Amino acid sequence: MEFTSFVFYFLSAILILASLRVITARNPVHAALALVLAFFTGAGLWMLLEAEFLAITLVLVYIGAVMVLFLFVVMMLDINLEELRKGFWSYLPAGILVAGLMVVEMVMVLGGKDLGLAQPAPHPADYSNITELGRLLYTDYVYPFELAAVLLLVAMVAAIALTHRKRPGNKQINPAAQVKVKRADRIRMVSMKPVKPEPPKTEDDE
Q: What string of DSSP letters covers 73-132?
C-alpha cells in the first residue's frame, strides 16, 4: 500500500472517531477538543487532495470562528466556570492526545518528502488549486453547488421565520408607534394641594 493511501485511511479513521466523540461526549470541553481534531483532520485530507485553499479555510474559519462561537454559547448558558477550572488537570490527557495526533498528521502530510517517502507527481508552476476549484464548481458540479446554495437560503429564511414568529403573550415593540408618541401620551400632570406634615408625638402629649 502506498504511503498516500495509508495517510488517507489513517486520517479518515481519526476523523470518524473524532466525529463520534463530538456527539457522544457529555463534557462540553471534551466535545470541543474532539471537534477541533475533526476539523484539523479534515484539513489534512484536503491537503492530501492538494486543495491547500480549502484546508487553510477550514482551519481559519471553522477552528477559529466555530470555537469562538462555542465559547460564546458557554458564556451565554452561564456555566459555572469554577467547576470547570477545578477539573482542569483532568482535561490534560485529552488535550495532549489531540495535540499529539495533530502533530503526527502534520508530519505525515507535510514531512513525507523530507522523510524519503513516496510523493505524488508535482504540478506545474502555474497550477492553481483555486482556479481548479472554481472550474469544477461551475462546470462539473454546478447543479449540486446551486442546490447547496438554495438549501442554505431556505435554512436562513426558516431561521428568521422561527425567530420572528408571533407567540401568545410575547411583548413586542413597534418602532413606528414609539416615534409618533407625544408627551401627553406618556406624562399626566396632577395638581395636588400642599399638605403640612403633622409634628411627631412626644411622651408629654400622651
A: HHHHTT--HHHHHHTTGGGHHHHHHHHHHHHHHHHHHHSTTTTT---PPPPPTT--HHHH
Within a domain: 141: yes
Please name the residue ranges forming H helices in the chain.
3-24, 28-48, 52-57, 67-76, 81-86, 92-110, 129-137, 142-163, 175-180, 183-186
pLDDT digits (tens, 9 = 90+) for 112-147: 665 665 555 666 767 777 787 788 888 888 998 899
Up-side HSE of residue 190: CA atoms within 13 Å toward CB? Answer: 5
pLDDT digits (tens, 9 = 90+) for 66-106: 777 776 776 666 556 566 556 667 777 877 887 788 777 76
The answer to which of 14-23, 62-71, 147-156, 166-175 has the lowest mean pLDDT is: 166-175
Q: Measured in whole angstroms, how far is the alpha carbon of residue 12 from the centre of its chain? A: 22
Q: How far apart (Å, rounded) are the C-alpha atoms in residues 142 and 135?
A: 9
Q: Are 38 and 19 in contact (CB under 8 A)?
A: yes
* Nearest alpha-carbon partner for 42 in 102, 121, 99, 120: 102
Q: What angle do CA 137, 13, 116 make, to 5 degrees?
A: 85
Structural domain range at position 159: 124-164
The number of distinct structural domains making up the chain is 2
Contact 144, 150 (CB under 8 A): no
Map grid coordinates 489534512 to a residue: 44
CATH code for the domain in which residue 12 is found = 1.20.120.1200
116 and 130 share one domain: no
